[in-house]
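Final report, closing paragraph on structural work. Over the funding period we assembled a curated collection of sequence-structure pairs, and we close with a single example.
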Amino acid sequence: MGNRTKKYYFIAALMLVWGSNLTAQETYDKGFEISKNLEIFSNVYQNLHQFYVDDVEPGKTMKVAIDAMLASMDPYTNYYPESAMEDVKLQLMGEYGGVGALILQFDSNIYISQPYEGLPADLVGLKAGDRIVEVNGESTKGKTTADVSSAMRGQAGTEVTLKVERNGKMITKTLTRKEIKMKAVPYYGMMKDNIGYIKLNEFTHGSAQEVKQAFRSLKAEHPEMKGVVLDLRGNGGGLLNEAVDIVNIWEKKGQLVVETKGKIKAKNLKSYTSSTAEDLQIPVAVLIDGSSASASEIVSGSLQDFDRAVIVGNRSYGKGLVQNILPMNYGSQMKVTVSKYYIPSGRCIQAINYSDRDENGRAKKLPDSLKTAFQTHNGRTVYDGAGIEPDVEVEQEYMSSLTAELVRRSCFFEYANIFCSKHETIPAPEAFEITDEIWNDFATFVKSKNITYKTYTEEVLANMRQAAEDEHYLESIEKDIKDLEEKFKQEKANDLTKYRKEISMMLKSELLARYYYEKGQIQGWLPDDPCALKAIEILNNTDQYNKILGKK
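Its predicted structure, as stored:
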């Protein structure tokens, strides 16, 4: 039997296992297509290696080919060579070997943007705003953040030497890398009106235990607590089992939280709450937004289906797909979408159908006409195919063009460097405010940067002028357009004052991070957070809370 025949029968055997619901002819056809195309691919690769005018790097070329193939599937099916295993570990476990600091690129230089409290970078005294000059004696000039981050990471227990510049002085620090485990719950505490708050950043190993411990601490230290808010905004998801365990904190044992369904029926799973709940009575609100995805949607969606929590905020992302990590040869791995998940009401919240694409190759969203209605435990109507729709929507606050440009130009970061060099301390997060003195100093700094930016209104006026010219109306209405442009120019000159509130909040957040880390940022932001305030209002009004959940 020839090699080609052996290869075909091997692939056909696999197809019989994988596609048990296919007919024999379908299995034969698919097996032949796989065998044929693998052979064609091998021939293309061999021809490149043998005849291409320049040398071909095997690993790099193959990675490009694999990535292009997987790009036709969905954004979550990925290949990871052995060199990327640290990134996989960080993604799944919230762990990596490193120094515990975020970095950013600004003015062609690399800076520490945030050292994590109690981790190596923080313990040796490195600060946000330190410019990284060298890593292990190698200059960072011309390097990207990815280059520098890779150089700083490594096996726990090994050393890395950083040379940084702070306020014109060079500082050299040798750090011992540590197995960095990011906190899933960076902050929990009490808000006004006796409402507890827990912020969950990710669903990595141990996340549920962190949430449970935070809730237990709040109950023990604040017996007067009348409700609790779980904040899942910006949480892109993670491990499914952690989501089930978090639901179990407020939902009774034995409840079906999520069911996965895929091609391989033997691997379809039903996940139930398995422990006694921590509290079945306390009112719960969950905050979500457009970046709450996957495991965040399992938690918020199942608590909504059980009518156990009021969901507040904005529609979630809509990722109802489940991935498995498959080990491969030579230390590489592959993350593959293997199934879709369905929450207690029976709905799948996946918003995009990656198998259905338009003429430009873009995946399509499920149209409203194909969405199906489902019922929660109390009989409320919910829909599939579009993420989790909040029970109470809070109007989104969009960033002004000026604020967005200040962020893009790293103005908040740069000003914070200057501010911190002049102020050793600031008031506690709950007491710190952007005073007139700080604001005026920041405004002077911004004006010195000669910031230019284009607003949507300017684009509309420019398009109007162009349309009028194209349709030969410009001559008769040009004076009106000029008057509008001049009036808008005068209005735009006041943008710094007009958007003082939102700009002050961004500045406050940056400064609090410098002195009190991420925990301080959250503490300083919460008192003015519209979603948190709405959740507090609902949790303090029993009639409103019960009405939203359809309780009789």
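Residues 5-20 have pLDDT under 50 and may be disordered. Residues 24-51 form the longest helix (28 residues). We thank the funder for supporting this effort.
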